[in-house]
């Protein structure tokens, strides 16, 4: 499974490296962003995008071998990694600034719909999960792990802090509100989540209580 995941990442890098028509590229990206925003991720097909862009379907597949590749490319334009990876010098303000940038992107275009669609599609099969990780998740997760790693290097949080767990807590909280829609993705949530994550990161890890053996009782 690891080897297949590596092959997908290598394929994506090869695709990115091929020369392409800039005019066709922009036409496809613009059409895809418009259709994803209007129809949603699941109801938008590569065929519809190609038709709206005025190019052949194979032109789209030549540069983006799957719909998730194309969606990830548009998401990167709407919420670029370079703009949502702040370095303010403090963990809490880093997290809050990152969240505010993300939430702005989610409310000003189809970024939220794209992310929701990618997450839902990834549940279809093991192959879908590997595609999601190769095309989108692994690279974006680096942003969150870097935030906590810098804080640990500055001495803000203990060396024993579990950065992988903290990253999952941060991403999970965002995705929960995004998918369930039970509460807003707003400034209050950004500040509250940042404060609680810093508190969690600063605390020394505790041992999970051992569940009593029922047979021994």
Automatic annotation (TrEMBL):
Pfam family, one: TetR_N
Keywords from the named record: DNA-binding, Transcription, Transcription regulation
Domain of life, source organism: Bacteria
A GO term for molecular function: DNA-binding transcription factor activity
Species annotation: Hwanghaeella grinnelliae
Descriptive protein name: TetR/AcrR family transcriptional regulator
InterPro entries: Homeodomain-like_sf, HTH-type_TetR-like_transc_reg, HTH_TetR, Tet_transcr_reg_TetR-rel_C_sf, TetR_C
Domain HTH tetR-type residue range list: 22-82
Record-linked PANTHER family: HTH-TYPE TRANSCRIPTIONAL REGULATOR RUTR, TETR-FAMILY TRANSCRIPTIONAL REGULATOR
DNA-binding region: 45-64
């Amino acid at each position: 499974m690891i080897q297949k995941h590596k092959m997908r990442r290598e394929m994506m890098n090869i695709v990115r490296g091929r020369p392409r028509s800039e005019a066709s590229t922009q036409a496809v990206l613009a059409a895809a962003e418009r259709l994803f925003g209007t129809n949603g991720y699941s109801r938008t097909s590569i065929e519809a995008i190609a038709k709206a862009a005025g190019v052949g379907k194979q032109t789209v597949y030549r540069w983006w071998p799957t719909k998730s590749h194309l969606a990830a490319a548009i998401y990167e334009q709407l919420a670029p990694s370079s703009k949502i990876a702040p370095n303010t010098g403090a963990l809490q303000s880093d997290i809050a600034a990152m969240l505010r940038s993300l939430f702005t992107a989610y409310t000003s275009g189809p970024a939220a719909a794209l992310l929701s669609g990618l997450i839902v599609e990834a549940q279809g099969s093991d192959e879908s999960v590997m595609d999601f990780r190769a095309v989108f998740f692994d690279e974006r997760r680096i942003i969150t792990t870097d935030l906590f790693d810098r804080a640990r290097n500055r001495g803000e949080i203990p060396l024993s802090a579990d950065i992988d767990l903290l990253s999952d807590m941060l991403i999970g909280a965002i995705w929960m509100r995004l998918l369930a829609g039970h509460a807003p993705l707003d400034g209050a949530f950004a500040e509250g989540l940042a404060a609680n994550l810093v508190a969690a990161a600063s605390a020394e890890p505790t041992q999970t209580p051992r569940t009593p053996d029922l047979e021994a009782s």
